Input
Amino acid sequence: MPSTRDIRRRIKSVKSTAQITKAMQLVAAAKMKKAQDQAANGRPYAELLNKVLVSLKDNAEEGVHPYFSAGKGDKTLVLLIASDKGLCGALNTNLLKKLVTTQLEGEVDYVTIGKKAVQGVTRLEQFRSGEYKKVLVVFNNFINTVTVVPTVEQLLPVNPVTLGGKRNFGNLAEAPAAGPASEYTFEPDAATVFESVLPQYVNDTVFQMVLESRASEHSSRMVAMKNATDNAKQMVKDLSLEYNKLRQAAITNELLEITTAKMALE
Output
């Protein structure tokens, strides 16, 4: 059985840990608010751009741009967007589980975005050369502070993308040729416009996915640190209760010894 001194030391240690996790919780909360705003503000532009391109995909001339069709190769490129730091609960673990359970055909190359962001963007150019059949992105889709969904989205060829759990453009991809897509006029021509717009779309979509992952990271870290702080406070209460019981037992024993000694002297 631990002594009262040992319990006091544990209480002091847990209180110090609680102070650290509380500070980390406040820092994560401040970063979370900024990251959530950035993710939310970027969605309307990414939504409109994806909506337009998906509606044009089936109506564009064959071969007008390589981003509209699958590559000639049989390999798949997977961009994995994870956090740079830990202490964010099961965020990265769940993301890796999603990747492992995803059925990927043929040879697969992996690139991480985070510390290797430059490498990830550079490897995207290899899709245009036909080396990769398609490009997938695995990231944490931010829904709200307590809900983060590990998601796999097809980036290339251009495909309907769901971010924040609010978008679904599947019906646009099936729009008939006589629909709104046929009303677009391109100057000087479609190929030139797509040459400029589609790379911008890829960059913006990847950037938006990074923002979604960042918002997910800070939200998960804030929740994890709050849970850690609450658990530390509960542990302090439990240890304090145990300490008081031991102290009360020690006082009772001392009183019994004094009473016994007094009775022996009488």
User: Anything to note?
Assistant: Residues 190-265 form the longest helix (76 residues). Confidence is low (pLDDT under 50) at residues 116-121, 167-182. Residues 24-222 form a domain with the Pyruvate Kinase; Chain: A, domain 1 fold (CATH 3.40.1380.10). Residues 55 and 171 are 9 Å apart (CA to CA).
